[in-house]
Amino acid sequence: MRSRLFILTASGAFFILAAIPLAAQPACEGHNALSAAEKAAGWRQLFDGTSLEGWHGYNGKAIPAWSVADCALHTAGVEGNYGSDQRADLTTDAEYTNFEVGIDWKASKAGNSGLLYGVIEEPKYQAAWETGPEYQFIDDIGWPEKLAEWQKTGSDYVLHVPNDQKRLKPVGEWNTSRLVVNGTHVEHWLNGAKIVEFERWGDDWKKLRDACETKELPCKFRDYPGWGMAATGRLVLQDHGSRFWFRNVKLRPLP
């Protein structure tokens, strides 16, 4: 945005003396905007940098913990920085089938969140994780208890663990994640490296989903037979009672 300074002369005429660019907010500069190349490639913004437009609370829940702070989506957290997994997750108004998502995120110490997809909203579900898979975001180092590999950042939560290409930035720094969902094929990327890749809905995937207390995997989805089966669903940012920040949230539909 530019401001213009007008001078009124004795004759009543106006002249433009200067056009001075207004200083941009440092946290916003270069963020939450698409380049010409991205627009040409079909990317669209899911967060405009100023509002929660295009988002709502899962199953219509109120979202008092969510706000926009320093041009980022922000969840306020609770005492202890960890809360119920049935809080009001932030959910897209639109549904998606095949797509690629890019997102920058920053954790607080011992923070826990995630990006879920293929999420279904129905009254019988109390939380988004009961319906859709999750790209896990968590403080791997500062978590107060030892994490299993399937719990760590970048995992396809419970089912698939990251490979040795994973490079997680320290708490307080921004990470960049990418999620590709194209039919049965799913990829997780972190800071430029592909760290998880798998095919969903096949026999091997179903065995992992339905595993119960095998190889230290919990019976997480036993009571939700439809979990992970939706080809079309919403995207969700999880509020697990931790302070988190998200920006540059964008999506490109895939054919």
What's the short version?
This protein has 255 residues and is mainly β. It contains two helices and 15 strands.
Topology:
Blueprint lengths: L1 E7 L5 E8 L14 H5 L3 E2 L9 E3 L8 E4 L2 E4 L14 E3 L6 E9 L4 E8 L14 E5 L36 E8 L2 E6 L2 E7 L3 H7 L24 E4 L6 E10 L2
Antiparallel strand pairs: 1-2, 3-15, 4-7, 5-6, 6-15, 7-14, 8-11, 8-15, 9-10, 9-14, 11-12, 12-13
CATH top level class name = Mainly Beta
Strand content: 25-35%
Helix content: under 10%
How many discrete structural domains? 1
Largest sheet: 8 strands, antiparallel
CATH-assigned fold name: Jelly Rolls
Number of strands: 15
- Indicate the mean pLDDT: 88
Characterize the overall form.
globular
Description:
- The protein has 255 residues and is mainly β.
- The protein has one domain (28-253): Exo-inulinase, domain 1 (Jelly Rolls, Sandwich), CATH 2.60.120.560.
- 5% of the residues lie in helices and 35% in strands.
- It has 2 helices and 15 strands.
- It has helices at residues 36-40, 203-209, and strands at 2-8, 14-21, 44-45, 55-57, 66-69, 72-75, 90-92, 99-107, 112-119, 134-138, 175-182, 185-190, 193-199, 234-237, 244-253.
- Strands 3, 5, 6, 8, 11, 12, 13 and 15 form an 8-stranded antiparallel sheet that branches.
- β11 (175-182) and β12 form a beta hairpin.
- The protein is globular, with a radius of gyration of 21 Å.
- The relative contact order is 0.22.
- Residues 1-24 have low confidence and may be disordered.
